[in-house]
Fold these 3 entries.
Entry 1:
Amino acid sequence: MWSRMWSYRTAYLFVAPFLICFTLFIVIPIVAAVGLSFTYYNGIEAPRFIGWSNFQYLVAQDLLFLRYALPNTFKFAVIVGPGGYAAAFLLAWLISRLRGGYRKWVALAMYTPSLTIGIAMTIIWLPLLSGDRIGYLNSILLKLGLIDVPKLWVTNPDLLMNSMIAVTLWSSMGVGFLAMLAGILNVDTTLYEAGKIDGIKNSLQELWFITIPSMKPQMLFGAVMAIVTTFKTGAIGTELSGQNPTPEYAGHLIVNHINDYGFIRFEMGYAATVSVFLLLLMYFANKLSWGLFGAKEE
Amino acid sequence: MLILSVVMILPIIYIFNHAFKPYHELFVYPPNFFVQEPNVQNFVELFWVTSNSIVPVSRYLFNSLLISFLSVVGVTAVSALCAYPLSKTPFPGKKVIFSTIILMLMFTPEVIQIPRYLVVSHLGIMNTYLGHLLPVLALPVGVFLLKQFVDQIPDSLLEAARIDGANELIVFARIIIPMCMPAIATVAILAFQNSWGNTETSQLFMQDDEMKNFPFFLSTLTNNLANNVARQGAAAVAALIMLVPNLIFFVILQSKVISTMAHSGIK
């Protein structure tokens, strides 16, 4: 065993730099989060082991979590995740059917919004959604006579969630979208010809019987990326409304809940518990997409 | 299709216009989408107003440029080095490493900020450029994409080189790197996006203001922008600075990205 490992020493040397960083900043933090989730830790005293009580509090007593963070996250994730994913796939398919040089530019137009994820997104959307009549959306809707008074798109608790979803969907055509576009473009064209001979009549059948089966791996990659982005953009509510917690917890997602406990209340043990819960949630979301798109034969 | 892409791009066009609007145009009613009298007043404001504060905006910009440059170089080098043996050498432990990477593909660093903070503070790299750089160096997506790309380089090519007396390092530098250029370009783009817009390291790992980066500065500008009129123009300019490098990078390398993504499937 050891001599075999020694004979591959250059391989280990090559892998080492990545693996060290990877372990330090991704693996250890995740393990630490799991460990901390069983403790009471306020950042100053040493963590004190308290068993499952953080988890008990989370599922039984944390009203903010149960009433706002959890339902909000589900609503947000269900619409933005599968919704954004389906939209990305549909767009990729439509773009792949375009002919000529402008396909590249349409793809670029779709992809650009995802470049703004993070802080620039806020600046772009705030003036558009701002709550007075100067806000672009208000101004247009007022002019069309659809609304009578300017709406507070980002500070009204009823509307914040919708604004969050709209903005996130707008920016969801990211890496996953590119992967699917590439996947569609690389489907072997002889398959389509064979399909025509076998009696495939329209392009929808073509999509269902040929395109989707042959690009399953890309679709899985796209799904994983969609899940990651969905949970990543969780802070958008705070950014849009400029407040954490968001007004009446309307945009309160699990990510905000973690920050709330971790960096505002300094209950880091409990914050870690919430992160572990979120990690589990992401893991099962991924398992689900794996089941849908994963290769069965392996 | 064209209409949809126009709608998608609309907010982007708008931010371009916003950045060049003089004050009296920023707040007219009804608001104009396009700028009437373009000028650079906002640019001047962004750099002028902050020049007499303790940390000038150029310092943030310098930090951002330096960190992004280092992290692009670092991430591509580290990922490529890792991807090559993962794809071509059957060393013990390889399966475990690769499946861990796939697993970590699913998680975002945002969720584990607190333990990350603890790691960084224990390493003693708070307030240093290393603190900016190291946490973003491990990019699982990067290794994954590169590994998939290296997979399709024929083994016989590597064999031939080894018979000619090339050692692993030469094989890596002369064959793997040149043949993976599209994938490396893609990873570079992802790395750049990752660090150019990253506020996490500045917010958590940097206490000194002169060590923070441009996106962080931007987030201080936008605090309460929702109910605020001041500095909107300057903020738009700053957003533009955040966006444009990404855009240029992507336009130049788009075809390479697409060809890399064709191999991105998880099998």
Entry 2:
Amino acid sequence: MRPILLQGHERSLTQIKYGHSFWGLEFGDLLFSTAKDHVVCAWYSVNGERVGTYNGHVGALWTVDIDPTTTILATGGADNTIRLWDVRAGKQLKMWEFPTAVKRVEFSEDGTLLLAVTEQRMGHLGTVVVFPITVDVEAEQVDDPSFTITFRESKATVAAWGYLNKYIITGHEDGRVSQYDGKTGELIRDVQAHELDMQITDIDMAPDRTYFITCSKDKTAKILDVNELKVLKTYVTDTPLNTAALTPKKDFIILGGGQEARDVTTTSQRQGKFEARFYHKIFEDEIGRVKGHFGPLNTIAVHPRGVGYASGGEDGYVRVHHFDRQYFDFAYEVEKMKG
Amino acid sequence: MPDPASSRPNWADDEEFDDPSVLPPQQVINNPDGTKTVITYRFNDNGKKVKTTRKIRTTIVKEHVNPRVAERKEWAKFGAEKGHSRGPDLSTTSVGENITFRPSTNWKTTSKEDNAEESKLKDQLKDKKVTCRICRGDHFTARCPFKDTLPPLDDAAAPGAEESPAADGAGATGAIGGSGGGSYVAPHLRGKKGAGESMPGSGSYKDRDDLATLRVTNVSELAEEGDLRDMFERFGRVTRVFLAKDRDTGRAKGFAFISYVDRSDAARACERMDGFGFKHLILRVEFAKRS
């Protein structure tokens, strides 16, 4: 496969998102990327053409998400704001200000709720805030969150919605995974999923949002179920992980990482382990790697139809891959027998 | 009075000769097989004119997409891309090198072998320590306190040890003869069997009896292995027919090897078939030489 290189950013990538699936219609024709250079870019995933940029943020951007109808884009960054954008026109619709940086935003399955993770800094505790959203570019959005979850112990680094907005799942700096009620924000469950004091760096929900994958600096990725927070699968690697993604269509997962960005200059590219690693979701075996980046991988997003994936690295490039036949043909002997 | 014919450009004033700094325009030729040939000219870094000929086949793939996706395809650009035309912009989008990605169940084992060499070298170097060439101390030679006062140890020992390298050399070749040496040995130095012999492992291939093998040259391009087999089987049992073929065109390269079970059959065939006319060419048959 021949990757498409997107060079729209001048600094390291922080998050990539494909346009979501909506009521079972899987789109994925648009790709959104954020980097530390204050600009959000929108691309056509099929040919890598840049559709436009969303300008307005005045700090590094940490996160982006798109509502299921591809109408509203939410971004959050180190300028302590969440901004909503009109996807089509690139116009800013709304801005919420916070005392600290916004590390993660995510729309709920139906696009009517938005959660955001804010940083713990300068005496402010880390929080998760939830806003109701009206999915219409003309509509006036509310000013205040419907509720706030405050973390007294360890701050949350990532968060995601469970199925039917029933739960909010958070991943924490100390390796814990917690489950909160999606309506009230009460803590329901708490599990030490990853090693103690190893930060959880990414979370990715399965398409039906009944299970999710987390990855951590402890060099492992785990699949947990949303209801019980039971660890279903564990994938062991040899490098700190920054990102994990589940692939639709095939039972694979993609992990990305590499050693800490600050150590990159002291090691060679080969030792740096800057590859996207493919594991079999069920057998937990590594089945291949894809090279290409010059720095650690910060984010991986898989096309909602499972036909390709995009990875963003510390090197400032987005690489969009469209899978070959071999990828789809690959199956374990047992899997072949079943079919 | 100007003649209408003279206003036409003379063939001798072809653009080639007009001005060397002007590039000929791009040419597009539509080939009968549906492809396009595009010829473009440019100057390279050395100021030389470069002609690039590209053959392009356009394949149109039709895809049915959701109307919402189709509508998004038509969006006007915004932000930093405002006003730009449709299609990927080379400044932001480029195509990377081809990556072969083949998922496999034994991915781990295959990649481990790659690292084995590297780790071996590391192990070897692990115990290495810095030694001074002058006093054998635990420091670099340049830092040696006796640098200016003592000659290097190797120099001092050299006259006495002069014999030993030669002896070592002989020993080394001996060791290689027994195929125990680790380093590279040129093929003609390997083993005691002489030229052309290679490592014992591949013996089954190389030890094949060349005594009953004929080399046939001046074979027609259109020849097939079957034709040769039919012709040469008349003289005895043929164990192998090898016809060298071009990898790209699949046509014969013009020579072949025929192996017989019996050398006497081979000799007879050699005698009878040398000078035999085959597909408009006269075959030349001789015993294959060991190379």
Entry 3:
Amino acid sequence: MSFLELRDVAKHYGPVAALAGVDLTVESGSRTAIVGPSGCGKTTLLRLIAGFEAPDRGRIALDGKLLANGGAAVPAHRRGIGVVAQDGALFPHLTIADNIGFGMPRSAEKRAEHIVELAYIVGLDKAILKRRPHELSGGQQQRVALARAMAMKPRLMLLDEPFSALDTGLRASMRKAVAELLEDAGITTILVTHDQAEALSFAGQVAVMRDGLFSQVGTPRELYFQPRDRMVAEFLGDAIIVPAKIADGFAISPLGRIAVDTAERRDVARIMLRPEQVVLKRTSREGMSGTPDMLFGEVTDSEFAGSVCTIAVRLLNSPDPPDAAAIGNTPLVLRKTGMDVPEVGEIVRLTVTGKAHVFA
Amino acid sequence: MSAIDLTHSGPPAAARQSRRSTSWITLAAAMVSLIALLPLAFIVWVGIQTGWDTVVALTFRPRVGELLVNTILLVLLAVPIAILLSVALAWLTERSDVPGNRWWSWLSVAPLAIPAFVHSYAWISLIPGLHGLWAGVLVSVIAYFPFLYLPIAAALRRLDPALEDAAAALGLGPWRVFARVVLPQLRLAICGGSLLVGLHLLAEYGLYVFIRFDTFTTAIVDQFQSTFNGPAANMLAAVLVACCFVLLGLEVIVRGEERYARVGSGAARQQQRARLGRATLPCLLLPAGTALLTLGVPFVTVGRWLLAGGADVWRWDEISLALGQTLVLAVAGALLATVAAMPMAWISIRAPGRLQRLLESCNYIVGSLPGVVVALALVTITVRIALPLYQTLFTILFGYALMFLPRALVSLRASIAQAPVELERAASSLGRPPLRALWSTTIRLSAPGAAAGMAMVALGITNELTATQMLAPNGTRTLAMAFWSYSGEIDYASAAPYALIMVAMSLPMTWVLYVQSKRMAGR
């Protein structure tokens, strides 16, 4: 029995379908990320799970208990689901301590101690408790919002792009801290984000959303290396997609003979490689002669950006090209570590590691 | 090299400049407040001239106690009732799916277009036996509750629904969300509106004369009419000033120092309206009943008198003259008051402190003085010190600016509070000098508030009676003066056209007020 279950959940705003029938299963204690471009319906989905709105159609069940069934829905305040909004949504008229303690009964035993403890758990200094929300930085506000949501010991925590307002360095560390914290507390978590790197690194299960539907749901590794279609592939990272003739677990493509992740297929299809699967080795024009089965390219552009650099490689020869003209004109764009990047004009030998993914 | 030069000379110069512009604004605010203090200084001066024993004898007597009880009861009953009514109406029109909510919202503002004494005139000719405290409370709430409804409705519209969602997710039911999250955020609006209503109750004259309910203001006018500017009127005014002090003190204590701009980034979500379901019909009774009492009664009565009077009561030469004079006074006075309120509003949000509180209270006290006290002071000062200014356009506009400064100030302050200081800093960082940064951000953003304030002032001047009578140049006869003199002769039919014109003139200004308050909330 899974912890959270969504079946065919749909929501319309006037003629616009924000959600067009979504299924999702979340295991207890797990972390799920819902990722998609803005306007894809992911925040609507979160609001339906939280109970801020009722779905037009479909069922939402938490721990075996029905939360929403068609238009009938349990209101948000009876669901016991924690929510951390994009900007924290702290109450401007209350101190930080009162914000954290907002969901606790005023007469609760050891209320003050509990507030201090929560502040400590999320990494806030005790001195901050007497201040007001507007005196805090963005990161601190998010921590307060998290502590406030944790105060009522929710079974499920919903995070609505909570890190998007933070700067890059803080973002990664906050993400890691929050993930660990919620795991230690045993709270099932759903994160909504438009940042694919955030989704992949945060969650055990990632759902890619587009136009009110899930394009694909799976582990980060599955989604990254075996995306269902081009949109998922490109949304989650750079992708090299080329046509190929497939047979016996290999593809004959403009990039040579490459192992693929299916042994049954025997047709013409598009295959996908992640740029990091392409390995470059420096050589020279002289080194190209007499090796017809090898693939060579010329570096046409190189952009230094610290640890990761972007280079463009134009293929010079292409064994057995089904689509040679198109590939020859479009350089491959690769990201490589900043150390020892080939210069513009250098000749490199290209090899592919790992398997390519075949699109349906 | 140039980088070193920049870090060396840049920041100190900029800091000095911004400090200079702040102090100029503070200076301007102080000047306005000092000038506004003239009538108050006049009362003190008269008190000193009168002598201590006479002052004590005039202040501590049964008549003053009686007036004090009347006034306190009036404020204590009318203001809470008006708050309850306004919050309920504002919630229904802004946050529920009550049918025709836009209409009800406009109908809740429209009573502002009817001068308070016209409300009273309507009720007394409908129920001639209407007298005393409860009559006073009834007509006061009817005439003045929109001053509370407007800011509360605007604040409700502006609330970030994410906060209510957060409270619901923390396990609070709808009623507790309203009590613990919504209501506290309406505090600024409720405080500002209550103060405005309270001050109007203290200063109103015509309304209470009709229903024969004695307050300090009516008593002061009586005294003035019998003994001109005698010490008795001035001592009553002194007690009235003390009442204003109490109201101001209460408002400052209750208002506190909260920050009401939205915390966090991004645009606020659209709010959802509560579904009333089966409660729709009972809920409709409130706005419908309110509209009936506040608009139905005056329109039916004025209509009845107009029908009874026929064509004879429309003396067009007289009416057009009054109309023109009223328009000129209203527009000029509104401009003067708004310009005078700007520096004060700015420092009260951006550089709050003790000095600012003091200056602001000065303005409020003067604005809360009944028109007759301001007028009395200006009459005496011009007669004794600057005789050429006696009963000139300058003096009357000056008087209006003193009286209506708080109206302009309240709207300006609320709208500047909505323009985050970060925008001004951003403009400064984009190379605008301080005053131009102020102009291109805060002033631009608070322009709707300023316009609303001006409309409020113009509305007030159109309906002003006593000060106009005493200060206006000889031969002036505004609409309110004409209305008052006819209804004073119990010629209710002849007064009706003036009532209708005042309402018709006030309606567009009220409409502006209504639209601006909507636009301020971004809709």
